[in-house]
Write a structure and sequence with these properties.
The protein is α+β, with helices and mostly antiparallel strands. 24% of the residues lie in helices and 34% in strands. It has three helices and four strands. Strands 2-3-1-4 form a four-stranded antiparallel beta sheet, with no helix packed on it. Strand 2 and strand 3 form a beta hairpin. The protein starts with a strand and ends with a helix.
Length: 88
């Protein structure tokens, strides 16, 4: 499954997140794959596409960051998968 993970940086400060990432990397558990990410211009949020068997599989990864980030996890389909359900 694909997930759009919206991270909101606590205190609006991305620097602690960047420092931890440089030190420890992404810290993904087995079975979770990172696809891509974007950060808004203000540096307040990061949008990541992640792949995992289910949303619960992301818990270990989010646990490594929850002191710095508030998470919203949205299951998504790519456009082709979505529209094929309509026969388009």
């Amino acid at each position: 499954m694909l997930f759009m993970v919206i991270e909101r940086f606590k205190d609006g400060d991305p620097r602690p997140i960047g420092a931890r990432f440089r030190e420890k990397g992404r810290m993904l558990p087995d079975g979770v794959a990172y696809h891509a990410s974007w950060v808004d211009r203000e540096g307040m949020r990061c949008f990541q596409v992640m792949e995992a068997a289910d949303a619960e599989s992301l818990e270990g990864w989010m646990g490594c960051w929850k002191d710095l980030v508030d998470f919203e996890v949205v299951p998504v389909l790519n456009s082709a998968e979505f529209w094929s359900a309509f026969g388009i």
